[in-house]
Design a protein that fits this description.
132 residues; alpha/beta; Rossmann fold; 5-stranded parallel sheet; 6 helices; 36% helix; 22% strand; globular
Length: 132
Amino acid sequence: MAKDINILLIDDSDVDNFINKAIISKEDNISQITTMTSGSEALNYLNTNIHNTEALPDVIFLDIKMPGMNGFEFLDEYIKLPHTLINHCKVYILSSSIDSLDTEKGKNYPVIKKHLTKPLAHHSIGDILNED
């Protein structure tokens, strides 16, 4: 059996976070789903738990279009974190943006596993969570 997976959702929309949390929670091997409504809040969470691997997410779903710190600004700071943390997490862009410039910009970040379009319900969560 696969290990339990800790998920971090970063999206400024409480509705999207609620829906995505409901979709993800249907999977068997989820241990925790944490939601953050801003990139800066998520960075603070990661920095606070940097030495607590139990609290670190295995998978991050990141929205791009957010007020304050957007997803790309989050990534600019995220890639400065210790490699032990970066290597622990799989990061997926989860955005309603169909702008090809966003997709191309996402390719500049090697930490991004894939660019997914909202809603998350259109994707196989089990397949995403089991990707290497």
